[in-house]
């Protein structure tokens, strides 16, 4: 995905390529916002921290807990679909957010990633997020 963030004359900006699914554009923009707002040093795992920031920014803890509590062995595709359609965040990002909150295990994440790869869904998932509003700029 073509992204760029930085500042021009002390004004921060984020640009993203709109040729990707809306959920990926939203997550990428939030990730870049994390870089701009938090300024994590690269040596401290900035990318991972910005991914975590994007997940938390787009999918609040209470929403994940409401949908996926209590923590259990299986999470249905339909639960993930509902979260994606409501919050505009990819199925993959939802699983990682749930892992960060301790609602799924590392094994569940690995199994989900295998399913994503086996079905050819790494970029275009079987559930589409349709944004409700228009960007303003």
Secondary-structure topology with pairs:
Elements: E1 3-8, E2 11-16, H1 22-38, H2 46-58, H3 61-68, H4 77-87, H5 91-100, H6 106-118
Antiparallel strand pairs: 1-2
Helix pairs in contact: 1-2, 5-6
Characterization of the model:
With 137 residues, the chain is mostly helical. The protein has 2 domains: 1-47, no CATH class; 59-129, no CATH class. The chain contains 6 helices and 2 strands. It has helices at 22-38, 46-58, 61-68, 77-87, 91-100, 106-118; strands spanning 3-8, 11-16. A two-stranded antiparallel sheet has the order 1-2. Helix 1 (22-38) packs across helix 2 and helix 5 packs antiparallel against helix 6 (106-118). The chain is globular, with a radius of gyration of 15 Å. The model has no long low-confidence stretch (mean pLDDT 87).
Task: Please give a quick description of this structure.
With 137 residues, this protein is mostly helical. It has helices at 22-38, 46-58, 61-68, 77-87, 91-100, 106-118, and strands at residues 3-8, 11-16. It contains six helices and two strands; from the N terminus they run ββαααααα.
